[in-house]
Amino acid sequence: MTSKIAVVTGGVGGIGQAVVKRLAESGFLVCIIDQNEVAGHELVKILGRQNRIGEFYRVDLKRSAEIKSIFEHIYAKSQRATCL
Question: Which one of 14, 22, 65, 76 has the largest count of C-beta atoms within 10 Å of its C-beta?
Protein backbone atom coordinates (compact mmCIF):
# COMPACT_ATOMS: atom_id res chain seq x y z
CA MET A 1 0.00 0.00 0.00
CA THR A 2 1.20 3.50 -0.76
CA SER A 3 2.05 5.95 2.00
CA LYS A 4 0.56 8.83 0.03
CA ILE A 5 -3.18 9.30 0.58
CA ALA A 6 -5.41 11.91 -1.02
CA VAL A 7 -9.06 12.60 -0.27
CA VAL A 8 -11.18 14.05 -3.06
CA THR A 9 -14.68 15.26 -2.26
CA GLY A 10 -17.04 15.37 -5.22
CA GLY A 11 -14.68 12.89 -6.81
CA VAL A 12 -17.05 11.41 -9.39
CA GLY A 13 -17.94 14.67 -11.16
CA GLY A 14 -16.05 15.85 -14.22
CA ILE A 15 -13.39 17.92 -12.46
CA GLY A 16 -13.32 15.54 -9.51
CA GLN A 17 -12.62 12.55 -11.74
CA ALA A 18 -9.78 14.41 -13.43
CA VAL A 19 -8.26 15.20 -10.02
CA VAL A 20 -8.71 11.59 -8.85
CA LYS A 21 -7.05 10.19 -11.98
CA ARG A 22 -4.12 12.62 -11.79
CA LEU A 23 -3.49 11.84 -8.12
CA ALA A 24 -3.73 8.10 -8.77
CA GLU A 25 -1.24 8.42 -11.64
CA SER A 26 1.10 10.16 -9.19
CA GLY A 27 1.02 7.16 -6.86
CA PHE A 28 -1.57 8.25 -4.32
CA LEU A 29 -4.19 6.01 -2.78
CA VAL A 30 -7.20 8.15 -3.61
CA CYS A 31 -10.17 8.16 -1.25
CA ILE A 32 -13.10 9.28 -3.36
CA ILE A 33 -15.94 10.89 -1.42
CA ASP A 34 -19.26 11.48 -3.14
CA GLN A 35 -22.96 10.65 -2.89
CA ASN A 36 -23.14 8.91 -6.28
CA GLU A 37 -22.40 5.34 -5.26
CA VAL A 38 -22.73 3.79 -8.73
CA ALA A 39 -20.34 6.26 -10.37
CA GLY A 40 -17.96 6.03 -7.42
CA HIS A 41 -17.60 2.27 -7.65
CA GLU A 42 -17.23 2.50 -11.43
CA LEU A 43 -14.38 5.00 -11.02
CA VAL A 44 -12.63 2.64 -8.59
CA LYS A 45 -12.93 -0.14 -11.22
CA ILE A 46 -11.46 2.14 -13.87
CA LEU A 47 -8.52 2.94 -11.61
CA GLY A 48 -8.02 -0.74 -10.87
CA ARG A 49 -7.84 -1.57 -14.57
CA GLN A 50 -5.06 1.02 -14.80
CA ASN A 51 -3.22 -0.56 -11.83
CA ARG A 52 -4.09 2.45 -9.66
CA ILE A 53 -5.52 2.42 -6.15
CA GLY A 54 -8.79 4.08 -5.24
CA GLU A 55 -11.44 3.61 -2.60
CA PHE A 56 -14.97 4.97 -2.66
CA TYR A 57 -16.87 6.30 0.33
CA ARG A 58 -20.48 7.42 0.09
CA VAL A 59 -20.76 10.49 2.30
CA ASP A 60 -23.30 13.29 2.54
CA LEU A 61 -21.15 16.37 3.06
CA LYS A 62 -24.08 18.14 4.70
CA ARG A 63 -23.80 15.73 7.64
CA SER A 64 -20.89 16.63 9.88
CA ALA A 65 -21.04 13.31 11.75
CA GLU A 66 -20.56 11.39 8.47
CA ILE A 67 -17.61 13.59 7.53
CA LYS A 68 -15.96 13.14 10.91
CA SER A 69 -16.52 9.40 10.85
CA ILE A 70 -15.08 8.85 7.39
CA PHE A 71 -11.99 10.96 8.07
CA GLU A 72 -11.40 9.06 11.31
CA HIS A 73 -11.71 5.81 9.35
CA ILE A 74 -9.29 6.96 6.64
CA TYR A 75 -6.81 8.24 9.23
CA ALA A 76 -6.95 5.01 11.26
CA LYS A 77 -6.49 2.94 8.12
CA SER A 78 -3.48 5.02 7.09
CA GLN A 79 -1.90 4.55 10.51
CA ARG A 80 -2.30 0.78 10.31
CA ALA A 81 -0.78 0.75 6.83
CA THR A 82 2.31 2.67 7.92
CA CYS A 83 2.87 0.26 10.81
CA LEU A 84 3.02 -2.84 8.58
Answer: 22
